[in-house]
Amino acid sequence: MKLWFPLAIAAALFVTGCNRDEGIKDLETFTVIREHKEGRLSYPTNPPTGGVHNPAWQNCGIYDKQVALENAVHSMEHGAVWLTYQPNLDPAQIEKLRSLARGRGYMLVSPYIYGALQKPIYAVAWGVRVGVEAADDPRLPKFITQYMNGKQTPELGAACSGALGSPIEQ
Question: Residue 39's pLDDT band (boundaries 50, 70, 90)?
């Protein structure tokens, strides 16, 4: 047996292990490219899970209005988790989402107005997302723990402040 064969098997197992869903039911994973581009951009997923984005990132924090997709995607490239929700979500549900983000530096929370979401709430990070029906879904804290500044982050350690936006809370 040639030396390359066992190495190829080991590499395949490593890659498979890195891409597993870590036990988050209905987790969706996406292959996304990284590139900076000015202006309004379109995305193949709703909400976007990464891809071409504006050079400036969205300052992390809690927003009561929709943030620009192109800037939120850049924040995810830096390690942010974005909790986004349908604008008509019950205020008690919105407060639960906000409480999940308080005190965490790499979180975005905002309503989503750029098209209909299939689920009322999405947790999104670079290349991954999960949609849920309610803010008390146990997958949300698990997603945040796993993907905020997680191994999928292309620019781990990059800032999530000092750019665009004025959150209503940090």
Answer: confident
